[in-house]
């Protein structure tokens, strides 16, 4: 039996996820949201003392920033752009006629200035760059956003619209790599505290095409990305529930993020896949949170 | 081959230094070759030599220096001729 479909079916049957007719696009029940809220409070308790500046962007970003980010060079297959009807009354008539006849009405939709956010930190870099040089202590930011990636799948852990909680650090190479290591240690401890078995492994982003193979190998050779893996739908093919990314000075150079002395900032980010963590908890402890082990409930709900 | 590679590197490498000033064994990453430039370079080399990089040679080491690129290209040509 396909384990992924089976777990997804169980999630639908229990009402934790709500089917919409589109793979990877689901509603969430109150209980599901309760787990995410509790885990976010755990993140707050672990990371709160660091004094990160909290910023929340909506799940859409400025298309000009998206274009400058280079996302289309690496992941054109995952991007989602927002299009709208921009015609006159006559165009409206043709649109309705087209829809009524069951023809493709989307061709005349025009791109708006908004692109769906592919990762929570994408809108951050131009925002911080606009402020001028970073303070001597660098920068630390706390973000959370729904993100979009066009990858329809019946794996409940691969959703098209999902939430990513992130901490982003900007500063010297030493500062940001230390930050990344700190969160790798914290991440393992947090997952163990909620009864999840974890491992950390070097990883690469899903770069597009054959050229992407070279980029992926470059990323691995340089240990730029690590993932924290937890069994969700399979014990063999584990699911990445956190990622730890060191961008070197790539984003600093691209966006003009400079340190107080004018040197280009290095950046790193850690991301929590909130739905994936909730799913890992449901897979490990069962679909009824009231029946979860007492020590896990205590960590999450006190 | 060396000259073709150097010409491609000048055109596609986006290096802040003159390619002529680099020795054959100079570290191209240290000279400023970015990941994306290495992709452009890879595609340029494929076109110029009418070859296709196999997956196992699509890595950082293959583009580490002009000499490394020469060696990689020679390996691919040899394999293609043998096939």
Brief descriptors of the model:
heterodimer; A: alpha+beta; 2 domains; 7-stranded mixed sheet; 3-stranded antiparallel sheet; 12 strands; 23% strand; B: Non-ribosomal Peptide Synthetase Peptidyl Carrier Protein, Chain A
What would you note in describing this structure?
Chain B: InterPro entries: ACP-like_sf (IPR036736), PP-bd_ACP (IPR009081). Chain B: This is Acyl carrier protein. The complex is a heterodimer of chains A (302) and B (83). With 302 residues, chain A is an alpha+beta fold. Chain A has 2 domains: 3-80 and 118-301, Bira Bifunctional Protein, Domain 2 (BirA Bifunctional Protein, domain 2, 2-Layer Sandwich), CATH 3.30.930; 81-115, no CATH class. Chain A is 40% helix and 23% strand. Chain A is built from 11 helices and 12 strands. Chain A has helices at 3-14, 30-47, 63-69, 71-74, 89-100, 124-130, 173-193, 209-221, 250-255, 274-285, 294-301; strands at 17-18, 27-28, 53-55, 60-62, 81-84, 110-116, 139-148, 161-171, 199-202, 225-230, 239-246, 266-273. A 7-stranded mixed beta sheet of chain A has the order 3-7-8-12-11-10-9. In chain A, helix 2 packs across helix 10. The longest helix of chain A has 21 residues, at 173-193. Chain A is globular. The two termini of chain A are 38 Å apart. The model of chain A has no long low-confidence stretch (mean pLDDT 96). Chain B has helices at 2-12, 35-49, 66-82. Chain B has one domain (2-15, 24-82): ACP-like (Non-ribosomal Peptide Synthetase Peptidyl Carrier Protein, Chain A, Orthogonal Bundle), CATH 1.10.1200.10. The model of chain B has no long low-confidence stretch (mean pLDDT 94). The relative contact order of chain B is 0.19. The radius of gyration of chain B is 12 Å and the shape is globular. Chain B contains 3 helices and no strands. Chain B is 52% helix and 0% strand. Chain B is mostly helical and 83 residues long. At the A-B interface, helix 8 of A face helix 2 of B.
